[in-house]
Sequence to fold (119 residues):
Amino acid sequence: MSKKSDQCQFVVTLDSIVGKWKPIILYHLLQGKPLRFNELRRLLPDITQRMLTLYLRELEEEEIVKRVIYPQIPPKVEYSITEYGMSLSPILETLHQWGVAHIERKQRKKEKNEQTETD
Fold:
């Protein structure tokens, strides 16, 4: 396989799951319970309504998230992870574990530097 082809595959993957809020949205939906729009807003207090809408639409277009509209007044809309979206679970879990380890590493480095400065 060519390097250009490999690079393209990484780009496609990252475009699907990367964005400031996409991994966090996916994390909450991967908990298994369908969530309404305002429930997601409460879970992500710093996200704007526009950005949440945009990311949910992108994830829906990728068939990672499913949107269900219930015919009632006022309309009820729920978002859930699709079976296909569930395949992202090990990837996101690995990213989470790496993030935890990276934060710990940075903290140890900071503590070591502070200790060196006080000596």
